[in-house]
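New to this. Look over this protein:
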Amino acid sequence: MKVLKILNLYCGIGGNRKDWDKFAKENNVKIEVTAVEYNESIADAYKQFFPGDKVIVGDAHQYLLENFQEFDFIWSSRPCQSHTRMRKTNSGIGERKSPHTFPDMKLYEEIIFLEHFFKGKWVVENVTPYYEPLIKPQKIGRHCFWSNFKIEPIEVKNTLNIRNGIKRDIGLDISEMKFTHRKDQIMSNCVEPKMGLHILNCSTKLNIEEEVKTCSTKHVIPPKSKDSGILPNFT
């Protein structure tokens, strides 16, 4: 049985990870997931939900740099707080005032690094920012995705239903768990499981570059790079 080694960076409690076992079953592959999370209490919750995964408590950014070659597929969901549109909304006065901060450029460090040095399939996820993205993403709903494969359009209902910090709809019940972070923030950071499964499915399909090489009898015209987010180069 084929083994697919997956690196899940900034994994949180594993919203994007939840349905990956469905992918493994449907495609008759074994997935080996290494998840990296800097907050120990959140990492402990991930371990309870996915006991078969290897969980690293540490700096996901540095772990990527030192270990990227060991994996077939990499997912990175770097913290979005410095990029979100709420950053501008909450920079006003009174109770909604929040401290100003620079956008975290490590997001783009990872995108550029993966594009040029990683040989497998990869995706970097973040929210739609308050500024024009420096590198054009593929957009689905409230998410921006940078990847080296085409992500087909999909409608995913945001099942965020926080009640006392609980998100029941995706099957990750944290009501009895204790964290050093706010539960509502932890839950709002979750990628919908349906989206996580959809993207993993898309990563296994022929990418556009492969279609051009293999479909010699068809007139396949690749998209211009400025219109396609991050996709393979055609040289």
Remarks:
- The domain at 2-91+103-227 is CATH 3.40.50.150 (Rossmann fold).
